[in-house]
Amino acid sequence: TIVLSGGGSRIQGFDQLLSKTLGRQCRHLDPFAKVSFDHKRIDPEYVRYMSSEMAIAVGLALRETEA
Q1: Banded model confidence at residue 66, pLDDT cuts 50, 70, 90
Q2: Nearest CA to 30 among 8, 64, 61, 3?
Q3: Closest CA to 22 of 52, 50, 2, 38
Q4: Chain segment 2-42, per-residue pLDDT in tens
Q5: Residue 56: which of 15, 21, 7, 13 has the closest Cα?
Q6: pTM score, two decimals?
Q7: What are the residue boundaries of the structural domains of the chain, listed by start?
């Protein structure tokens, strides 16, 4: 499985093209999958939309809390 992240991963049809070209399944990274937040204060749809661009920031933030 190829995990896609970054703004370019949101290009329409990119994941299907990559999957077809490489013969591998592709999926989008969700760095917020196990991060809880207040849905009343932060729009879940916005979080979903921005998740592909926030992977590095979330990873760095989590690393700091695990130290």
Answers
A1: low
A2: 3
A3: 2
A4: 999 888 888 999 999 999 999 999 998 888 888 888 989 99
A5: 7
A6: 0.67
A7: 2-66
